Amino acid sequence: MLTANIAIETFQEGGWVMWPIAATFFLALCVLLERSIWWIGFKKNLRPKTQDLAREAVGTGNFRSALELAENSSDPYIKNLGDGIAHAHTSMLAAMQLDATHWIERAEARMWVLGTIITLAPLLGLFGTVVGLMGSFASLGDSQLAATKVTGGIAEALIATAAGICIAILCLLPYNYFRKRVSLLRGSFERWINHTELLVNSAKTHGHDIEDFSTKLNIQIER
After folding, report:
1. Is the Cβ–Cβ distance between 93 and 192 less than 8 Å?
2. Structure letter (DSSP) for residue 46
3. Per-residue model confidence as pLDDT tens digits over 70-109
4. Contact 125/165 with Cβ under 8 angstroms?
5. Best-predicted range by mean pLDDT (121-130, 150-159, 187-196)
6. Contacts of 162 (CB under 8 A, 6+ apart)
7. Which one of 7, 16, 71, 96 is CB 3.0 to 4.6 Å from 84, fit for a cystine?
C-alpha cells in the first residue's frame, strides 16, 4: 500500500507529461505480451520429427505423402512445403518464398510500435524536463514562493525524464531480442527452402517429377 502511494505521488509530481508517458508504457506492455504469445505459439507448432518425415518423402519422390503431412500439420515449415508442392506446376520455389514472406511479416508485426516507443518515450521525458524548468524559471520573480516552485519544477523535470528513459530501456532489450528471432526465422526459412529444392532435384534424377504430380493434383481438384 505504501509503495502504491509513493508511486502515485511520484506520478503526480511528474506533471501532466506523465500521462502520455504512461500511455506509451501501457502500449509497450500490450505489444510485448502479444509478441511473446505469438512466438510461444509458433514454437509449440513446430514438429521436428514430422519435418524430417516430410523431407524424406520429398527426397524419395513420395510427394503425395509429403502433401498429406502438410495438410494434417500446423507446423509452419511443413505447411510451407505443402504450399510449394501444390503450386509446383507453376513455381514451387516462388510459392514457398511467398509463404515464408507471410510468416516473416507476422513475426515482425507491431515491432514498429516498440521501435517508435523507444524513441518517443525519452523525447516525452525531455519535453517534461523543459516544461518543468520553464515553470521553475517563471516563478523566480516571486521571492516568497520561488524556492518551493523551483525545486518542484526541477523534481517534475527529473521524474519525467527518468520515466521516459526507463521505458526506453525496458523496451530496447525485448525489441532487440524479437528482432534477432525474426532474423533467425528468416535464415531458417531460407535453409528450409534451399534444402527442399535440393531434395526435389534429387527426386527428379530418380524419375520423380514434382511438376507432373502437381499438375495432376490440380486437375483432380478442378474435377
Report:
1. no
2. -
3. 988 999 999 999 999 988 888 899 999 999 999 999 999 9
4. yes
5. 187-196
6. 125
7. 96
Q: For helices 76-86 and 92-108, what crossing angle results, to 10°?
A: 150
Q: What is the mean pLDDT of residues 170-183?
A: 95
Which residues neighbour 163 within 8 Å (Cβ) at sequence distance 6 or greater?
A: 14, 18, 21, 121, 125, 128
119-to-17, 49, 125, 126, 142 alpha-carbon distances in Å:
16, 43, 11, 11, 37
Query: What residues does each domain of the chain span?
Result: 17-121+158-222
Q: What is the pLDDT of residue 220?
A: 64
Extract the C-alpha cell encoding 99. Answer: 509463404
How many CB atoms neighbour CB 41 within 10 A? Answer: 10
Which DSSP symbol is given to 23? H
- The residue behind cell 521553475 is 136
